[in-house]
Amino acid sequence: MSRRSTYNVTVGCDLVIEARTWRVEEVSDDGFQVKCAEDASYTCLGFEYIDRAIGDGSCTVVTPAMAEKRKQLLQLTGGFERVQQLSPFQQAVIRAKLAVLNAMKCLEAEGHKLTQRYLDQGPVRSALRRIAIDETGAASLFTTVHDNGEAVTIPVPKGRTLQKYRQLLEQFDGNPVVLLVRDHLKGPRGDKARKICDLGERFIAAVVEGYLAVSQPKAAVVFRDTMESFPIAPDDFARNFKFPSLTTVRNRIRQLGSTVVQVGRLGRRAAANRLRSGTSSIPAVGFGEYVETDQCLLSIFVDASGQARSEFWKKEDQEKFPERGIGEPRDGERVAKRYWLSLVLDVATRMILGWHLSETATAEATKAALRMAMRSKERKKRLYGCELEPAPAVGFTELRSDNGTAVRNKDVMAALAGLNVMVRLGRAYEAADKPYVERLFGTTDLQVLNRLPGYAGPRPGALPGADPMKEAVLTHDELYAALTKFFIDKYPARPHRGTELHGATPIQKMAQVVEKYGAIAPPCAEQRRLHLGEVKKLSVTSEGVLPFKIPYNSRDLQLWANTAPSRMVTVYLDPDNLAQVTVEPIGSCETLTADLSMTNLRHTNLPNALRLLKEASLLHPESAAVTDDDVGAVVTREGLQASLSDRARVERGYDRVTDYEGFATALGNVAARPSAFDASSRPAGSISSFMVVDEGPTSPGTAAAPAQLGISEVVAPSSAPLANRPTNCSRRMPRLPPKRPSKPSSGASRRASSDVFRHR
């Protein structure tokens, strides 16, 4: 016996499954042979599948009789199937009619014969009204408010109409929607209701087509130009053709809908970004699981000199208003710039992980923001006086960015690949691919930059009464301070309404996520140096290596150098952490580390270290060496200066490796060596107590030329044990003779280096 369906599904029935309608053409032993009503495709649906779908409610069976009755119902009501689809006025009328029909049943129960003539009598209809009110208990059953706001009284129909209402209810299985007022079906409908001829419709279509252009012309202008050039045949002219009015054209444009109008006048790309619907999906649940990064040119002009100068551009302004001048005026225009802000945002918690200001959106700026996200920001909190805790250091699993060159370059992509971070690049001009960091830029613009002098507005011409370039009085450091306090103290403490936040602040969400799922561990210091740091190829001497003229040395490095055939190595330096460098000998599989020889530079960064070395060299211009004590003296002096917080916050123009190297050129003839002192004589914490510098770069100023420093050679620090060094701190190391241009043999060079090493 062949398998059959449990339910009575016959030929001609419609099966509605997942919003698709299938017409049963044949019932075979294999199942139902069906045809799709949308694309006319054929397939076979098994009996078990149909039984299961009908049982769980995912399949609706529509018999031919049901389809015909539904068609008649829609034709009668004008498209309405349920009472809930009607207006409040229509629903009130239906309730009154149903109450009258129930009152008719009461009269029949009393023995009255309800003919049409009997129901036409006034006393009978009054009795029906009274019984309906008594049965429903609603005194205002026959009074309601029309859709136009007027109060109306619902009359009791006469006998013929009441009999028709009873027949309609019986015909459509008691569906009360058939009792609606059918005023909306009066008059001609469809093409018969048109009052504009075909030529007028073509004219309206021509005007609408000209209006839906990306140049965004005015409707009146397009209407006038189209009317002047629209061709009219002699027959139409003889029939006294008249153009539709501008009001008719505008009404037709409104009927198109705002979506069609914006697609036509804004373009597909801009309309998609503006009209794209949101999502309720949860993109990430773990801290560091999914981050977004992007760059934005800030809408604020900043005084690029970093100094407080006159608020006027020219001398005549200072002479005209002498009481309002600040400092000495400057000839010509002031240097006002806009800076790029690079952000890294954690999507699961909305915590801001890293930020960086730069003159251009480059790979170096992106790497600086990524390094900040992967390190502690506790020192930045203390430096700027923030009250809340910043986001902790965290690693990434997935990073999403746009198609810009700041991320889509070999340096950043190679660094992220080395850190095992999956990168997903969004489409060009598709802001919805990374909406969270894009929203953060808008919030920063409205809540931070809008309140600062020099603000230029969100778009060109937005502030016609402002002169942002003339009002550019903020320095780069002051702008960075305002952004830092907002990113640490204000933004994480404000409620968010996004998916899975439900009014929680980013700080609360981070605590919840970390407690439930944990956080991704950040990369170690060596991984940061290898993948996000600066790379230099140097030669190892007896003094170690000097990347950017900063001395590094270790015992393992010297032991390798004494036996290696070639002393060329690759040095990896983290610009934000100068304590150690990673050294990879070229042609060898070893990986070595070297420690910073100058302890006073341990708690600073690369640009600030170069500035400290430069200023330390100016303490004794006649000397050819800079010791750790000299650097410590500069740090102590700056620690006592009130302007330290303004000088040591952030670096403006040192975002590229070439800038580091150019600044280090001035130190090319400075002998940087550790001071000769007993470590036990320095109290604990005396170095870090004065080093109140940020992990971010600082403004080093203009580097002096070697001739101005009065120094002629480079001498690296000694790697000899501390006990073998001189104990007199005031003693200066002797100047070594300059290197010969010709390179000696490897054995002679090694012996000479060993002699110098032992001498020191």
UniProtKB/TrEMBL annotation:
Residues 318-514 form the Integrase catalytic domain. Residues 716-760 are annotated as: Disordered. GO terms for biological process: DNA integration. Pfam families: rve (PF00665). Residues 732-742 have a biased composition (Basic residues). GO terms for molecular function: nucleic acid binding. It comes from the Bacteria. This is Integrase core domain protein. It comes from Wenxinia marina DSM 24838. The lineage of its organism: Bacteria, Pseudomonadati, Pseudomonadota, Alphaproteobacteria, Rhodobacterales.
